[in-house]
């Protein structure tokens, strides 16, 4: 089995404390007159900016042998296409998994942008194609169409991109997109369409993944539940797309220290920085099945209650936003837990830990080698 590990790029601040107290760069929500010492400068500092810190994170991931980095996309954060293009010139081998929603951009222009970035990076571009979780966040992007329609749009988007990239002149007449005599020509059509990562647990999402994905991505859950998700997804693909060669990926945080006690102490310190008003785990109006499964993991605000399986803590949403799961323990324990996911069929991991710079080195130097794979 070929196993890949990616690291995450923090697009809205970084630091050792909860995400609303990040001190690296200006991406924080500190109270008035509260001025902690910053480790990275603000965007308007004379000589350096937050991007200079992010460049260090990407280069650290490249140095220790991560296969790539995820550049997420959320409302009110840095834009992943722009940062990928800048980081491509600052790294050598690192691949860039760019989060993209079909609502953001027309597929003809997405094809052209991807082709240019492939040329700049020498073919290191991948796409995390997100159909959107619905609810308030989706509406804040200006996208109001229903759940299944969003996946139908994603299906058309990817059909369009594949045709437009390599089949000029290209014609398409769908429900959401239309083009006449379009398509990329030499030299823009010399690279492959970016490798596609797709998430989703609904039938609508799995039909799109079965047609288009190389990697089906989920947020991390305890091993037994993760296995259930993989088994159900495999059964769906075997029934509807028997020729599909989709692999499985997982997005999860990790916190590793020389001893389990040290790791738990570090996690507790992060948990204690969360503002009291944020300790409850709210029920958002998301339509995402995966997001609802994450919410179900975190039914308590007590530190101890959030350990839901061995070395698995389900409270990270309030520490850094996003999914709830984190694997926490000694270097050996974290490696053992990751191996358990590999054993049930996970071949692609997107890992993260705050602060991302030091932890990229720590995980790359202390944990991944214990798994026995050649990451470089």
From TrEMBL:
Domain Luciferase-like: 41-348
Coiled-coil segments: none
Keyword Lipid biosynthesis assigned: no
Top-level taxon of the source organism: Bacteria
Membrane-spanning ranges: none
Gene Ontology BP annotations: alkanesulfonate catabolic process
EC numbers, comma separated: 1.14.14.5
Name of the molecule in the record: Alkanesulfonate monooxygenase
Organism lineage string: Bacteria, Pseudomonadati, Pseudomonadota, Gammaproteobacteria, Moraxellales
Gene of this entry: ssuD_2
